[in-house]
Every structure is written in structure tokens, then in C-alpha cells.
Amino acid sequence: MAAAFGNGIDMTTKHFDYIVNRIAAAKQNASSLAAGIGNPGIEGDIREIAARDCIEPFLTQSFQCGTGKIIDSFQAMSAQIDLIVYHRKVAPPILIGRELGLYPVECVRYAFEIKTTLTAAAVKDANEKFRSVSKLISFPRKKSDGSFHRGGNPVTVLFAFDSDIVGSELDRYTKHTDDALPPCTVICVLGKGYWFYDPTTTNWRGQEFSVTEPPYTEFCRFICGFMNTLAADETSMKPFKPGAYVDVDQLP
Asked: pTM (2 decimals)?
């Protein structure tokens, strides 16, 4: 993200600066618009719109943003999710409005919970919502014993514009999470850091923000991983029968 030029000074790239400018403006606008409103629902809508404005420009061709609930072909349903990144190549969502809908789990790549200020209560709330996502069964294949093999589930992202603590966000998250597998698989808190859970090593990877780095480097790191994931998915969509959402007898 940084390039060394002939004068020996490390310079940020144009893409890095573009990402930083977007998230800085989104944070400022969200704070300004939400100030004094006194309505948690409207404040939540403002922060979701602000976050979406920083995510949508980096979607690849097949992906779109929405909000609503995630479902599976067994009619199970998640809690309300703030921001959903989905594609239409596998199974189309049921759109209630232009962006509000019910999204088949097979078409959802990212599920975001967006917080204005991350608190212990907000961590617990995000975990509860993400647990409802982890219970969904994607790409089901029936086994000989009658049970179903499940595919992978969406990446679950806890994103916050600010925090109420000075210490490590990762330490706080693990303190309030005793699940065998963390319900949240990515954490990005502006000014604090970016981490992701690696299931192959069962460890968290990432980095605390350092004052020696440019502002919002943590968000740029998240966007790099985000874009790499979507680009890889463009050419590796799994086969699936979307008719299973209409007729369960079609489940393989």
C-alpha cells in the first residue's frame, strides 16, 4: 500500500489515498448527521449508509449490496443484517424493496454488522446476530445417513467507526466470545486495527493500528482482502440448484 520513491520517502498509492478519503469523509458525515437526532433507528440507518458508501465502490461486477435477512433452503432465517454483499449468479434474492430483501445463503459473500461506537454490548449483539448466520446450511448435499453436508457460510464482519476503549479490540472480542468458532470472522475498527480469523490455524491474524502508519490503514487492509476475495469468487462459483428454495424435494 506504500511505495518508496527515489527520494527515499515512503508515499501512499493513489488507490490507498482514494480509500482513505472515502472512509474519512464517511465517518465525518455520519457523525455530523447523527449528532443530536436522538433516534437510534435513524442513527443506525445513517451509519449503514456511510459504511455502504465505502464498500460499494470496491465490488466486482457480479456483486451488489443490500440489507435484510439471510435464509437457507430449509426455510431457516438469520437475524436482521445491516449490510449484505451478495451475487446473483447462484440464487437470486427475494427483494422486498430495491435493496431490502431475503438473501439465499449461497449468494451471500459478506455479512456486516456496523456500529457507530464499539462497546462490549455491541460485541455481544453482533455475535448473537452472526450466530444466526452460522446456523444456516449452504449448498446442502444429502448424506447416506439422511443428514446434510454443508458448504461454507458468509464472511461475518464487525465494523465500527469508533471505540469506547483504549486497549486491544481483539482482546475484548475474545474475552466476550467463548464459541468454539468465533461468530465474527473479521473485525475492523477505525483507528484501532483489522483482524481476521484463520480457520486452518484457529488463530486470529491482523494488526493493531500504529501511529507510525497513515490514518485508516486498517480499513485499507480490510478493503485489500475484500477485493481479493470477490475477484477470486468471480471465477469459482459453486454449482447449485436454486429450485431447492421453491421445492425442498429438489435438494441433492
From this structure: 0.89
